[in-house]
Each structure stands twice: as C-alpha cells, then as structure tokens.
Design brief:
five-stranded parallel sheet; Rossmann fold
C-alpha cells in the first residue's frame, strides 16, 4: 500500500530510471496522475506536462470505463456502441471536460514536443486501462519514439491489454484481486485543479 501519490511517484521513479533517456518526457493524466508524474519528473530531472484523456463510463456505472476520448476527440473502446445516442452524449461531455482541463492546466502554453522523444504516460492507478490506451494512441499519432506506461498499481487485465499497445509497461503492484484504485493508498483524497496547476508550474519553473 502507498501512503499517498507523492510516495508512489518516488517509488515509480526508481523503477523508471533505467528506461528513460535524458530527453524523455513525463506526461501525467489529470488529475491524480499528475501528482505522481510530478515526483517522477522531479527525481529524474525530466520535462513534465499533461496528456488529457477522459473515460466514458458505463450507463449504469459511470465509474466503470467502457471507452475513452483523447485530446483530439477520438473515441476508443465503446462497449456500448450499440447505444449510439448514449455514446455520443458521453463523448461530447468528455470532449467538453478535456477542453476545460487543457485551458485551466496549460492556459496559453503550447503542448510539449512529442515527436522523436520517449514518453512516459503516468497515472496514479489503472483499472480498465482504456483512458491510458487513448493516451498511448494519441502520442503515437504525434510521433513519439517510444511510449512507456507507468503506474504504481494496475489490474492484471489492464496491464496485459496495455502491453499490446505500449512499448513498455512498468507497474509496481499488480494484485491478484483489484477493486478501486484508492484501496491501494492510505491517502487517496481527490486531487483539485489547483494542485495540478501548482505541480505543473513548479516543474515548468525548473526548466
């Protein structure tokens, strides 16, 4: 069990150290993943930024991802594709939230250069893996040399699925029984927008 996201980031940085090149980029998935990624980037002296993706929850269980939308608005997954009206409504809401987050977190700052770089996509935990898959696919489309998925904890199913789309998957804990990500943290308080902005600005100020 991890005490909090910062400790998880410290441990993850040790595991990622050998896999990262000096020009590598660390991208956190907001919100909680950015706190983990910030510690990874700080300890490894790498650039930090965000990759904003949003899950599409099941109609009767919004916390369970059945699809995801990437920064460009593309949909992956969509197990409820037979319900086109639901899928389109959910995707539209996801796109709106992606736009809001990019404006709040990055403002006028340009997206980081991805082409020709190794990129680590970091989240605080991976349940289904669909949002991370969306991030990986979008980064490949932007020309990333290698895409590494990194997280403190993930379900076995998600780790297997991600191994098929990422160049490497580095997860500290893949438990036999996986419930909610928060069960693997002593402190898993919701991350506020202000915390994400502060973590990014602190990292950007170091460069």
């Amino acid at each position: 069990m991890f005490s909090d996201r910062t400790e998880a980031g410290r441990l993850l940085a040790r595991a990622l150290h050998a896999a990262m090149t000096p020009d590598a980029l660390v991208l956190g998935i907001p919100r909680g993943g950015v706190i983990v990624a910030a510690e990874v980037a700080r300890l490894l002296a790498l650039d930090l930024d965000i990759v904003v993706v949003r899950k599409i929850g099941a109609p009767n269980d919004p916390e369970y991802a059945v699809g995801a939308v990437d920064e460009n608005g593309a949909i992956i997954g969509g197990a409820y594709a037979e319900d086109d009206a639901y899928l389109m409504r959910a995707a539209a809401a996801a796109r709106e939230e992606i736009g809001r987050r990019m404006e709040v977190y990055r403002g006028d700052r340009a997206r980081p250069r991805v082409a020709g770089r190794d990129v680590a996509v970091v989240d605080d935990g991976i349940a289904t893996g669909l949002t991370v898959q969306a991030a990986v696919r979008s980064l490949r489309a932007r020309g990333a040399t290698r895409v590494i998925v990194a997280a403190p904890v993930a379900s076995a199913e998600a780790a297997r699925e991600l191994a098929g789309v990422a160049d490497d998957v580095i997860v500290l804990d893949i438990p036999d029984a996986f419930g909610a990500v928060g069960a693997f943290y002593r402190d898993f308080a919701q991350t506020a927008d202000a915390e994400v902005v502060a973590a990014l600005r602190e990292a950007w100020a170091r460069k």
